[in-house]
């Protein structure tokens, strides 16, 4: 079946924001206006179509990124026709940043939603930085203009101060909070008023008298900002010549795609105002797959050799798996972005990350939790595939005769861990399977066994994250479990260079065991991870034993020498050793590598690292003294204090270990009037006295 929609008319976009900015409501309205649904789903009534897990409907938040496809009209100046929009609705809660990260990796453009009252919030900054990392062009939508206290211009100021100076409004609101009636289009200089509750009908009128000076001022700013991105327009602007609307829009599209311009729109998704204009902007200014650079990868056999694939159906297949989900009806679903070539149901593909072939049983086009079978997916498509057994998040699928390895997706390390145990014998058998399936789906969720207590430990990005994992075990896998108190996921590292010898010799009749190596360990910059270096000269250790030595080092890193926490940010270099012609084996060198690493680590002045959280507290001014005093008592550091709509906002860095139960403390201290949110800032050394308590096992 040939391609139905030209690539130029495809948009792969994500809707991203802080929790409660109204992302899911915006997506629901998009589905309503594009004809995908006939009834408007309200998030606060638990009806939203994109939120398809039971916990999402109950909590009114989005946990996993639902993918859906819809259609809208292309603007005439881009040739008209139908625009196919693939939308991924991402979560805004900090515990689910992995979902945002993997969505942005495969998208071409984004709509960032801001709360008209709160402006830029901590998670808005996080998702903005994630989008910067993957150079995703964006449109900003200032939502909730109907709320009391909504202030478009204050929001715009906070975007300029905290995110980018390149954000420019292409609309201005008419009124705010209960007087919000519509918006002014700064291109046409016409006022748009909505005529019905569903926002389907609107009409253009002249700009209200009291807004004319403001509209003139902002239009001049817009024209000047757009003109700077094109030499011809710059000349016309300097010569005070009239620039056509089509030319302004054409250049603005080019600048937006180049990540040099962010168009800002406004509206109220809940009150059905401004979403159709937002859809127009998505079609007009966000890139098609053709507008983004060709995908780059490396040669499977040589990671130094760079390769590119053009975005074309005629190129060999290259696709990236960005999400794994378990569906109650079809089983394991792998969400895939096709970058080049085509994917056909019934065909075999090569997983270059795992070096194995996989069969594509079915290809599904997803709409929230409904699905449609298709026979082929083309370059630029985002689809779900059934039948891939060994393909996980970040894996590359390609043509076996034209192998390529695309850059994988990186995820943050878990910061919180709890012990979990099954309630009954039957639960015990099912729990292992349930946890491994959930870990397959979520790369920031880890499962391990404590070597000493033999307890199962689960780790994740926050208390809510682990709560939802336990809930899903109960609902989807019928596993009841007891969960221990949350613990901090500490890490261990070294602060000095050290070296040590690892020698494993065993003689017990017959063939013996002999492995011997010298290791040097060095500290690495925080966040740089682990590196292994082979500096063996003159064959003192044969090549085939270097791999086992590294394996031994990696295994030793799972449990550090201080308190058994994982080791991070260390370089290990094997530089000398010896072997025995008969007795040496891979197993012996693995043990020697592990022994050498543990001894060198002890000599390298090891320290414990703890997660430090970036915390934002919003509180009435009368409680400021108590809030700041409490932060200081928690080993916290206040970074700054600002005003927002009659309340004070405190930004601080506080160790995670001090924040368990903080919600209750803050409520009690402020009579329930303050709120807070937090996200991981960085890891740093634990003060010596506290480290001693943790190592002694007294600090839980």
UniProtKB/TrEMBL annotation:
GO molecular function, one term: GTP binding
Keywords: Cytoplasm, Elongation factor, GTP-binding, Nucleotide-binding, Protein biosynthesis
GO BP terms: ribosome disassembly
Domain called Tr-type G: residue spans: 8-290
SMART domains in alphabetical order: EFG_C, EFG_IV
Residue sites binding GTP per the record: 17-24, 89-93, 143-146
Gene3D superfamilies in UniProt: 3.30.230.10, 3.30.70.240, Elongation Factor G (Translational Gtpase), domain 3 (3.30.70.870), P-loop containing nucleotide triphosphate hydrolases (3.40.50.300), Translation factors (2.40.30.10)
Cellular location(s): Cytoplasm
Cellular component per GO, a single term: cytoplasm
InterPro entries in the record: EF-G-like_DII, EFG_II, EFG_III, EFG_III/V, EFG_IV, EFG_V, EFG_V-like, G_TR_CS
Main location: cytoplasm
Family annotation (Pfam families): EF-G_D2, EFG_C, EFG_III, EFG_IV, GTP_EFTU
Known role: Catalyzes the GTP-dependent ribosomal translocation step during translation elongation. During this step, the ribosome changes from the pre-translocational (PRE) to the post-translocational (POST) state as the newly formed A-site-bound peptidyl-tRNA and P-site-bound deacylated tRNA move to the P and E sites, respectively. Catalyzes the coordinated movement of the two tRNA molecules, the mRNA and conformational changes in the ribosome.
HAMAP family: EF_G_EF_2_B (MF_00054_B)
Family that this chain belongs to: Belongs to the TRAFAC class translation factor GTPase superfamily. Classic translation factor GTPase family. EF-G/EF-2 subfamily.
NCBIfam families, per database record: EF-G, PRK12740.1-5, small_GTP
Official protein name in the record: Elongation factor G
């Amino acid at each position: 079946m040939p391609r139905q929609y030209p690539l130029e008319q495809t948009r792969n976009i994500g809707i991203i924001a802080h929790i409660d900015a109204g992302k899911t409501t915006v997506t629901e309205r998009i589905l309503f206006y594009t004809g995908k649904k006939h009834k408007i789903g309200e998030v606060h009534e638990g009806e939203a179509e994109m939120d398809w897990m039971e916990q999402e409907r109950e909590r009114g938040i989005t946990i996993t990124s639902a993918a859906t496809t819809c259609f809208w009209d292309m603007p005439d100046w881009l040739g008209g026709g139908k625009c196919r929009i693939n939308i991924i609705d991402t979560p805004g809660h900090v515990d689910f940043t992995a979902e945002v990260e993997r969505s942005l990796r495969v998208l071409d453009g984004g709509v960032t939603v801001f709360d008209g009252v709160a402006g830029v919030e901590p998670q808005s900054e996080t998702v903005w930085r994630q989008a910067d990392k993957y150079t995703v062009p964006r449109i900003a939508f200032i939502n909730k203009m109907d709320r009391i206290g909504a202030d478009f211009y204050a929001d715009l100021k906070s975007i300029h101060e905290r995110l980018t100076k390149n954000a420019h409004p292409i609309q201005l609101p008419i009124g705010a909070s209960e007087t919000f009636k519509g918006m002014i289009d700064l291109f046409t200089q016409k006022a748009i008023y909505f005529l019905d509750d569903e926002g389907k009908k609107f009409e253009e009128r002249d700009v209200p008298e009291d807004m004319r000076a403001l509209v003139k001022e902002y239009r001049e700013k817009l024209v000047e900002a757009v003109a700077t991105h094109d030499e011809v327009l710059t000349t016309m602007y300097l010569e005070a010549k009239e620039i056509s609307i089509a030319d302004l829009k054409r250049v603005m599209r080019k600048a937006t795609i180049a990540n040099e311009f962010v168009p800002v729109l406004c509206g109220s998704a809940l009150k059905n105002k401004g979403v159709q204009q937002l859809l127009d902007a998505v079609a007009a200014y966000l890139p098609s797959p053709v507008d983004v650079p060709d995908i780059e990868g490396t040669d499977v056999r040589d990671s130094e050799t760079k390769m590119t694939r053009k975005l074309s159906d005629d190129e060999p297949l290259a696709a990236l798996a960005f999400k794994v989900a378990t569906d109650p009806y079809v089983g394991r679903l792998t969400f895939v972005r096709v970058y080049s070539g085509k994917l056909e149901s019934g065909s075999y593909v090569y997983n270059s990350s795992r070096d194995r072939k996989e069969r594509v049983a079915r290809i599904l086009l997803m709409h929230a939790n409904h699905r449609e079978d298709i026979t082929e997916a083309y370059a630029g498509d985002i689809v779900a595939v059934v039948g891939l057994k060994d393909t996980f998040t970040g894996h590359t699928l390609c043509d076996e005769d034209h192998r390529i390895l695309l850059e994988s997706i990186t995820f943050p390390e878990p910061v919180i861990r709890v012990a979990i145990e099954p309630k009954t014998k039957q639960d015990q058998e099912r729990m292992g399977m349930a946890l491994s399936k959930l870990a397959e789906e979520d790369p920031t969720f880890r499962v391990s066994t404590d070597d000493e207590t033999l307890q199962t430990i689960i780790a994740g990005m926050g208390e809510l994250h682990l709560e939802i994992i336990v809930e899903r075990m109960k609902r989807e896998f019928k596993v009841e479990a007891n969960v221990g108190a949350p613990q901090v996921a500490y890490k261990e590292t070294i602060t000095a260079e050290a070296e040590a010898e690892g020698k494993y010799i065993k003689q017990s009749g017959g063939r013996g065991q002999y492995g011997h190596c010298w290791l040097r360990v060095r500290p690495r910059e925080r966040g740089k991870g682990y590196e292994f270096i082979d500096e063996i000269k003159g064959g003192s250790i044969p090549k085939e034993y270097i791999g086992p030595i590294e394996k031994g080092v990696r295994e030793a890193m799972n449990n550090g020498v201080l308190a058994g926490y994982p080791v991070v940010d260390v370089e290990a270099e094997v530089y000398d050793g010896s072997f025995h012609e008969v007795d040496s084996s891979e197993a012996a060198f693995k043990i020697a590598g592990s022994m050498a690493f543990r001894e060198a680590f002890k000599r390298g002045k090891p320290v414990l690292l703890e997660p430090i959280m970036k915390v934002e507290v919003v509180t009435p001014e009368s409680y400021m003294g108590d809030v700041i005093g409490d932060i200081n008592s928690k080993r916290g550091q206040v970074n700054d204090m600002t005003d927002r709509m009659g309340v004070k906002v405190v930004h601080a860095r506080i160790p995670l270990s001090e924040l368990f139960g903080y919600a209750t403390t803050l409520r009690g201290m402020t009579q329930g009037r303050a709120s807070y949110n937090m996200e991981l800032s960085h890891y740093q050394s634990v003060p010596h006295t506290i480290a001693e308590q943790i190592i002694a096992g007294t600090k839980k």
